[in-house]
Amino acid sequence: MSDVTNSDTTSHLGEAAEPGETMIELQELTKRFPGQEAPAVDRLSLKIPKGEIVVFVGPSGCGKTTSLKMINRIIEPSSGHIIIDNEDVTTIDPNQLRRRIGYVIQQIGLFPHMRIGDNVATVPNLLGWDKERTRERVDELLDVVGLDPRTYRERFPRELSGGQRQRVGVARALAADPPVLLMDEPFGAIDPITRNRLQNEFLRLQGELQKTIAFVTHDIDEAIKMGDRIAILQEGAKLAQFATPEEILTNPANEFVQDFVGTGATLKRLKLTRVREVELTDDALTGREDEDRETLRRRLAESDWTAMLLLDREERPIRWLRTPDLRQQQRPLTEAGLPARAIVEPQATLSDALEEMLLGSAGVAIVTDGRGRFQGLLDVDDIILAIQTMRDTEAEFYRAAKLSDPDDEVSA
Amino acid sequence: MAFLEYLSDPSTQRELISQTLDHIYLTAVPVAIAVVLGLGLGILAHRSPQLRSPILSVVSTLLTIPSLALFAIMIPIIGIGAGPAIVALTLYALLPIVRNTVSGLFSVDNAVIESAKGMGMSATKRLWKIELPNAWPVMLAGIRVATLLTVGIAAIAALVGGPGLGQEIFTGIRRIPASGSLESLLGGTLFIILLAVLFDLLYLAIGRVTIPRGIRE
Ligand SMILES: Nc1ncnc2c1ncn2[C@@H]1O[C@H](COP(=O)(O)OP(=O)(O)OP(=O)(O)O)[C@@H](O)[C@H]1O
Ligand SMILES: [Mg+2]
To answer: B21-163: which CATH architecture?
Structure first.
């Protein structure tokens, strides 16, 4: 038992210690603002592996934004080096550099006098792409961020909601397909529900795009959710810990990290497990809206289920139906029973799913794929089981650590 | 009644129309020069913190010089006629244009400028494609004020031998209390007011055409 645990633990830690190819490397990066005694960023050294999201998190004023803005040299470093894709970019032409780096900020900064399409086309235009190619790319990107190009391409920024604007901000940053993205609290100014949705959408997108991303937030929960790795920064951008979210939650490096992570580490860890990682109930009883009432009723009666999930023609869940709902003839099926609530996508975290269940006062969450098609159900028991498993792993981890203690003493 | 008679006299009409055309010229030329100079100075003042307060103080001071005095000062330097009037009016028109250019440029959202920068737009491109279009409504308002100001002050040009509706007004003033003097005075003034209204409408139209729809009120 402890053997298995040991090897598990090693592989887990090993993964954190041995990142893949480095895409961005900061070497002793320092920024001293004129007239300030202490540097805002003091010799920050950090490697961001290719294709990963590294989140910079820390208390207000610790130097997150300054660190990020030095990567595309919106703020010029006082000393130190920035290496991107094995090239020292500390002194190259900043405009050339910036065209290779997508940049998303909290205030978004869409150009108010330009249509959405032209906003997204900014970098392609700077790079001199031909019209046709740019147009296709703009439409493709608006589609990718979930905005119908025909509806939104010709609009102006002020004709969009905050969440839609932020999507355009992301599309604009991705326009010329830069390998690197810098994001400074991109979802900071958005209401919690929309923020959650945008985070999930962005993670799904990142799953396909595999960009190398430096992401700033002051919210540890967002850091845990978004980060492949988290850099917890202290005053002067001193690195308090740089590790995977799991590692930070189980093994905070010091008191600062512990305080910053705060209480409720177990609950936070619900944010680390995604719905797709747990086994769903996939034998749920479903019916389709174009099926006959009587067929549905008989199927429900013959099953162990007390309710049936009604799907539309595209397999998207719409209603929960019980036997009486199927007996009555007055209302169409699409209005009978209860609306299907608490719908989550596979990349949502267990925490999201739990929250949706609580919000929708539903005992189960309905899992759908990216197109909204039904995949399976997730109930509270599944989540409790997942927490249980994490506890066990943790317990085993500490047991393993204890077992290795005497060895340490011998060697010391 | 006497005023209507005065207005219906064909020779007065011819005179007033020709003076109005002169007045338009006396307004348009200084404003055009002031726009070119004012935009340049405004952009400079916005860019350079060191030059900002000298530029703004100089153009503000110019506007405080009484117009009569400024016109008079021009005579020994340039002589009489349209020349001194155009120079003096240009100097007056500068302040609203420079000031609104500076405040227009400062009113552009920092996040907008930063994101343009972050996408690798050069400083020149940023100025032309982002900053000026967004500052334009405020700048245009400055140009409009400068124009209306010039229409009014241009009347004084008649005192230094300049053309325009000021001539009709001063003809009237000089002849007071002779008959017809009041009519001349009122006629000149009326046409100046009409001209101001016309310019205002023109700026409304220019705003419609040149202010990007995304930032129009
Ligand atoms: N342009 C500037 N001039 C002078 N000092 C600055 C400037 N920008 C930032 N600072 C200082 O540098 C320090 C770090 O600022 P920074 O914006 O990087 O913090 P942050 O971690 O992003 O904080 P927040 O979470 O509040 O955004 C702060 O003490 C700030 O006052
Ligand atoms: Mg910040």
So the answer is: Orthogonal Bundle (1.10)
Tokens matching residue B24: 């338009």
Interval B42-59: pLDDT, tens: 999 999 999 999 999 999
pTM of the predicted model as reported, rounded to 2 decimal places? 0.77
Question: Which of A170, A200, A272, A167 has the alpha carbon at shortest distance from A229?
Answer: A272
What distance in Å separates the CA atoms of residue A305 and residue B44, rounded to the nearest whole number? Answer: 76
CB A23 within 8 A of CB A48: yes
Separation CA A127–CA A137 (nearest Å): 13
Residue A153: its H or E element: none
Q: Whose CA is nearest to atom 26 of ligand 1?
A: A60
Chain B residues touching A74 at Cβ < 8 A: 114, 117-118
Q: Does A105 touch chain B (CB under 8 A)?
A: yes
pLDDT tens digits, residue range A275-300? 888 888 878 899 998 888 889 999 99
Ligand nearest, relative to CA of residue A184: 2
CA A356, A362, A366, A370 dihedral sign is negative
Residue A404 has a pLDDT of 54
Beta pairing class for A308-311 and A317-321: antiparallel
pLDDT tens digits along A317-339 = 999 999 888 888 888 888 888 89
The SS3 of residue A80 is: strand
The domain spans of chain B are: 21-163
Please give the Cα distance from A54 to A232 (Å, whole number). Answer: 10
As a whole number, the mean pLDDT across chain A is 87
* pLDDT digit string, tens, across residues A336-374: 888 998 899 888 888 889 888 888 777 889 999 888 899
Token pair 């020994």 is at which residue?
Answer: B76
Q: Tell me the nearest-neighbour CA distance from A110 into chain B, angstroms.
A: 6
Q: Which residues of A touch B214 (CB under 8 A)?
A: 112-115, 156-158
In the block, tokens 């958005």 appear at: A190
Query: Is the ipTM beyond the 0.90 threshold?
Result: no
Q: CA B130 to CA A96: how far, in whole Å?
A: 19
Q: Cα separation of A186 and A182, whole Å?
A: 9
